[in-house]
Design a protein that fits this description.
Structural class: mainly alpha
Membrane topology: Multi-pass membrane protein
Family: Belongs to the mitochondrial carrier (TC 2.A.29) family.
Oligomer: single chain
Largest sheet: 2 strands, antiparallel
GO molecular function, one term: dicarboxylic acid transmembrane transporter activity
Helix content: 55-70%
Shape: globular
Protein name: Mitochondrial uncoupling protein 5-like
Subcellular location: Mitochondrion inner membrane
Strand order of the largest sheet: 1-2
Length: about 325
């Protein structure tokens, strides 16, 4: 199996990533909704203020007016707005980063999972217990995420760029340009910004996605619900995608915001870390903010997982003699 597992997983992941990229972009835009609506305490003046001059006088009472919170819109509205304001090609912003990310991250995690599956399966019965499946997914996902984090940061920034005012956009030309400029302007360490979140999310996604797919597929076949074919693969993969989406969405929201934050030299960054981002998000937008973008997440995770495993099964058939 060895190298072949990496090749099969890589091909399936790239096909799935590219085909569902617009849904992933919409998810990122939705997760960033409301982020800039956190009032700055320094801009809120009390009813009475003192103005220094040669003579100290007291200002008249003034009421504080806060701008209304931005209207939350759904995935269809977000997609239509992107299409109308940025053009159809904007739906594929950052696709080069997606290809690199899938090549690094998913190829590694899928390949390692198969290695662990081969090593940890019972030599007599060939069974691979659920606990070992989850452990294999956690380890494989964590290693894959550490390898692919630079491409992940670049992808998030390229997908989010269109929502910024024209004067603030980074306008990366490609994933190579993004990584090069980030290294030069913000330091090499910026390529691993949010890496703890990426690793945690990847561990959860891989464990829930790959383990649940294998477990559900085995259950379907063992109980004779369906035969080993397209129907079984689609059913098991969609269920696995739902499990992964529910488990990973809160970490994904925080990861997106930390990776997308703009750090200017000499200024305090919006978030000091993942925990700070989570606390600020919950305080200013409520706990449900951690499930922002859940509809596009499941809308993307479902098709992505289906395409991933259906393609994987077909690639395995094609490469079974190699």
């Amino acid at each position: 199996m060895g190298l072949k597992g990496f090749v099969e997983g890589g091909i399936a992941s790239i096909v799935a990533g590219c085909s569902t990229h617009p849904l992933d972009l919409i998810k990122v835009r939705m997760q960033l909704q409301g982020e800039n609506h956190v009032p700055n305490p320094q801009t809120l003046r009390p009813a009475f203020a003192f103005h220094g001059s040669s003579t100290t006088t007291m200002a008249a009472p003034a009421s504080v007016h806060l701008p209304p919170p931005p209207q939350k819109v759904g995935p269809i509205s977000v997609g239509i707005k992107i299409f109308q304001t940025e053009g159809v090609t904007a739906l594929f912003s950052g696709v080069s980063a997606t290809v690199l990310r899938q090549t690094l991250y998913s190829t590694t995690r899928m390949g390692l999972y198969e290695v662990f599956k081969q090593k940890w399966s019972d030599p007599d019965s060939g069974s691979f217990p659920l606990g070992r499946k989850i452990a294999a997914g956690l380890i494989a996902g964590g290693i894959g995420a550490a390898v692919g984090n630079p491409a992940d940061v670049a992808m998030v920034r390229m997908q989010a760029d269109g929502r910024l005012p024209a004067s603030q956009r980074r306008n990366y030309k490609s994933v190579v340009d993004a990584i090069t400029r980030m290294s030069r302007q913000e330091g090499v360490a910026s390529l691993w910004r949010g890496s703890s979140l990426t690793v945690n999310r990847a561990m959860i996604v891989t464990a829930s996605q790959l383990a649940s797919y294998d477990q559900i597929k085995e259950t379907i076949l063992e109980n004779g619900v369906m035969r080993d074919g397209l129907g079984t693969h689609v059913t098991a993969s969609f269920a696995a995608g739902f499990v992964a989406a529910v488990a990973s969405n809160p970490i994904d929201v925080i990861k997106t915001r930390v990776m997308n934050m703009k750090v200017v030299s000499g200024e305090t960054p919006p978030y000091s870390g993942a925990l700070d981002c989570a606390l600020k998000t919950v305080r200013s937008e409520g706990p449900l903010a951690l499930y922002k973008g859940f509809i596009p997440t499941i809308s993307r995770q479902g098709p992505f997982t289906v395409v991933l495993f259906v393609t994987l099964e077909q690639v395995r058939k094609l490469l079974k003699d190699f």
